[in-house]
UniProtKB/TrEMBL annotation:
Pfam family, one: Cofac_haem_bdg
Domain Haem-binding uptake Tiki superfamily ChaN: 62-268
Protein name in UniProt: Putative iron-regulated protein
Record-linked InterPro entries: Cofac_haem-bd_dom (IPR007314)
Length: 338
């Protein structure tokens, strides 16, 4: 693999990283993340529309009423996946057959996913190894396994929500139309130009998510890749809703994809007009920041671009910007800006 394709692969993965109970802090126990356990927001649910805290009953009611449910995460926070599993179980508990789509599973893994569940129905433990999750670059399958268990317990479909990685890379090297083919290109409405403010916001997000080290020549292609990924996730959810008789779909993805202003929901509104959408972002607390409304700044927005925020402890992690810079230097790029 060339240095350029390595950089594209690394950038594609980094761009999907989300830097983002059902109930109050008292209803959630056994936090696995270690930072901010005593923070006053930890475990609280914040409804953005009316700027108020809500409890489990109110959120479960919203889950039942929404056709499309999008659950945003920070990929390496185990508590986010525990809560996603809990929300998924709540959404499905009355026999609803909403499919559960994972950003982390792509089209190339679909055959192995289907075969595994045919051979071993309900086996969430073995699902990760069956689709070679361990070599995918995502955090350990054990973090995501509870979500799969919640889905399989209700016998609903688990779906890949991402294009195969070679196809994503081809968007950068060959162009979107060629990489997708005419039918998918048209179905995703990729000929439509993004509004200028959305284009600018996405560029800023891409630059910041790569710590300012992404070469300028890659910024616009990465915006296009992110737009394709969002549109494709919406496409998967929309098709699932049609296939299951209107029971909708649940998306597990990084919070950047879940944001309601220009993420997957923006494409759902065009692909499935009139269908209700609910966005919930799991968000790590910040020491010294006790106002829920202030967390909107993390998303460069006056109000958080989600319906609900669910606050969790924070994972102790290395500096992602230093890690990104180090990876690029290992690829022979002594100046990360080049």
């Amino acid at each position: 693999m060339t240095q350029t394709s390595n950089l594209v692969a690394m950038a594609v993965f980094a761009a999907g990283i989300g830097y983002s109970s059902v109930g109050t802090a008292e209803t959630v126990s056994g936090w696995q993340s270690t930072l901010g356990l005593d923070h006053p927001l930890t475990g609280k649910i914040w409804r953005v529309e009316d700027q108020s805290f809500v409890g489990e009953t109110a959120l479960e009611s919203e889950l039942r009423d929404a056709v499309f449910i999008l659950l945003g995460e920070i990929h390496d926070n185990p508590d986010h996946h525990r809560l996603q599993a809990r929300l998924t179980a709540a959404a499905l508990k009355d026999g609803r057959k909403a499919a559960v789509a994972f950003e982390m599973i792509d089209e190339a893994q679909e055959g192995h996913l289907i075969q595994h569940l045919q051979d071993r129905p309900g086996d969430a433990v073995g699902l990760g190894p069956a689709i070679s999750w361990q070599s995918s670059g995502w955090p350990d399958w054990a973090l995501y396994q509870p979500i799969a268990e919640a889905a399989l317990a209700q016998n609903v479909r688990i779906l890949p929500a991402s294009l195969a990685r070679p196809q994503i890379k081809a968007i950068y090297t060959e162009g979107t139309s060629s990489a997708l083919g005419d039918d998918l290109y048209n179905n995703l409405d990729m000929a439509r130009n993004l509004p200028a403010p959305v284009q600018a916001a996405k560029k800023e997000e891409i630059i910041e998510s790569h710590c300012g080290h992404l070469p300028e020549s890659m910024v616009s292609p990465m915006v296009e890749i992110q737009t394709v990924k969002d549109a494709y996730m919406a496409h998967v959810m929309n098709l699932a809703d049609r296939d299951n008789g209107g029971d909708g779909a649940i998306l597990i993805a990084g919070s950047g994809h879940v944001r309601a202003d220009y993420g997957v929901p923006e494409h759902l509104r065009r692909q499935a007009p009139g269908r209700t959408i609910l966005t919930i972002a799991m968000i790590e607390i910040q020491e010294g920041e006790h106002s829920p409304a202030a967390y909107a700044g993390r998303f460069k927005s006056e109000t958080a671009p989600f319906d609900y925020l669910w606050f969790t402890p924070r994972v102790a992690r290395e500096d992602m910007c230093e890690k990104f810079k180090s990876q690029m230097k290992k690829m022979g790029k002594t100046d990360p800006s080049q």
